[in-house]
Specification:
Largest sheet: 12 strands, antiparallel, barrel
Number of helices: 1
Strand order of the largest sheet: 1-2-3-4-5-6-7-8-9-10-11-12
Structural class: mainly beta
Order of helices and strands: HEEEEEEEEEEEE
Oligomer: single chain
Distance between the termini: 26 Å
Radius of gyration: 17 Å
Length: 208
């Protein structure tokens, strides 16, 4: 409901871009599915983001991966470098001991670098974490990097750590054609007290 509220708020007169991508890879004994969606809006000093990813894998008839991650975030620019933000996320992994992690938090972001080709930002926040086992107050730190290698090739990486025992790193390289179709490769690494996982994907999608 918190993410839905962010989505509705952003719709009111904001503009921006969206993309969706996924991949299906089949072999004699495995099926892999990966999908992602991202929507971004900007209006005056406000920025809105909604993200979602889904990964599924079945090998030799046995399901080995089934996870999704969705988040919503609102930024408010204080000046050219600093911004405050509020966020909400749901991280669900069927094969993790604490299957569901829900986050509600607020924090401060800093735009470390902004050039024609490079963008780097760091965000620190405090949040309320709810899992299958506990409810706790935690800190989070996220470092985001974007490299526009050319008008058609973009490299991004986002590294998130929470209280030292949970980490999530997402890397993607995308090529955009003139008609908006995108081809890309990505890697998602997650680690906590119970499980570490590494998923590489190939994606085709559309950006507008």
């Amino acid at each position: 409901s918190a993410i839905l509220a962010l989505f509705v708020a952003a719709e009111a007169g904001a503009d921006g871009s969206a993309q969706i991508g996924g991949s299906v890879i089949e072999s004699t004994d495995s099926i892999n599915l990966s999908a992602k969606v991202r929507q971004h809006w900007e209006k005056d000093q406000w920025q809105y983001d909604v993200d979602g990813t889904y990964n599924f894998q079945k090998s030799s008839g046995e399901e080995t991966t089934n996870k999704y991650y969705t988040s919503g975030k609102v930024n408010y620019s204080l000046d050219s470098k600093y911004y405050v933000f509020a966020l909400a996320s749901i991280d669900n992994d069927k094969f993790r001991l604490d299957q569901q992690r829900i986050i509600l938090g607020t924090g401060l972001g800093y735009k470390i670098l902004r050039t024609k080709h490079f963008k780097i930002s760091n965000e620190f926040s405090v949040a309320e974490l709810e899992t299958d086992f506990e409810t706790a107050s935690i800190w989070r730190n996220s470092l985001w990097f974007r490299y526009d290698a050319s008008p058609t090739v973009v490299v991004t990486n986002k590294y998130l750590v929470e209280d030292g025992n949970y980490a999530r790193n997402q890397t993607s390289v995308e090529y955009k054609f003139e008609n908006g179709i995108t081809l890309g490769v990505g890697n998602l690494y997650t680690k906590d007290d119970y499980l570490s996982d590494n998923i590489s994907t190939f994606n085709i999608g559309y950006q507008w």
